[in-house]
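Sequence in, structure out.
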Amino acid sequence: MCDSGKHWATHEGLATLDPLAVRLKDLLDASFLNIAASLQAERMQFPPLLKVADVDALDYFKNFPQLPLLVSATDAQAMNDRRESSRDAWTEISHDCLAHATHILPPAACYPVYSHHRDAPVGRLKTITTAANCYRNESHYLGLRRLKSFSMREIVFIGEMEPVTRALGLARGRVHDLAGALGVETRLENAMDPFFDPNSTRAVTQKMFPTKQEMVYGDDLAISSSNFHRNFFGQRFNISSVDGQTAYTACIGMGLERWIHAMLEVYGNDIERAIARLEALEDELASASEADAALA
C-alpha cells in the first residue's frame, strides 16, 4: 500500500523524504541533541544489528513475537539450486534458502546501550544519547505515523534510582517544552510497559506508580515515550551503579518521522514555515546561551 504527502511518500511502511523533509528532520534531531547536551549526555553510535541472544535476554521475543525483523545469511548451495530450477524473477527468498538468524534489526535505539554496559560500573549517573533506524513488523502501516522502518533519537540514563528518575523528569519536561515552543500541543498519558509480566509484583507496582509515559499529539499519536525500567536492564546485563548495587535505567525516545507528521499538520503542510520556526528557535536558544555566558 502506498501513501504520500507533498514532501514524503511511503510504500509498505518504508518512507522516502524529499530534501525539505530531510532538512526538517535534521533540525528536529538537532533540537533533541541540544536537550541531550543540556543533560550532559555523551553521544554514542552502536552497530546496526543486535545479537539475538542480547535481545532475548530482555524477553523481547516473548513480549513482542510478532514484531522482530531478523537478519540471516543466505545458503549459497540452496540459492544456486533454486536459481537453476527456475529463471523466474525473484520477489522473495524462502526460508529454506536462509541460514539460521543470529541477528535482529534494532526495534529501539536504546537496547545496545544496555548490552554495551554489561558487567560494568557506571557510577551515580551516566547519560548517553544515540540514534538509530529502528524496525518493527507491524500489522499495518499508516503514512509517517506508523512505519516498518523509522528514525529514533533516544536519551538513556543509567545509575542510581534518584538521579536517574530526576534526569528523566528533566528530559521529559524539556521535550514537552520544545513541542510547545513549536506549536505542537501534546498531553502526557500513562502506559504499561510489556517487559513486566502483568501478574508480577513489578506490574502491580507499575499500575500504582506508572513507569511509562507517552507524549501524545492529536487523538493518539505518541511522538515521544519516556520509560523508567527500574533495575530490569541492570539485572539482565549485570550493570552496577555505586558500591556494586544493581543500576537503574530510564530512557526517553523521539520518533522523528512522527514529529515531522505533527509539524506538517500544525503548519498546514507548509514545510518551509515549519523549518523557519525551528531555525528561529535554534537562533533564540543560541542567543540565550550567549547571554548566559556573558553573565557568568
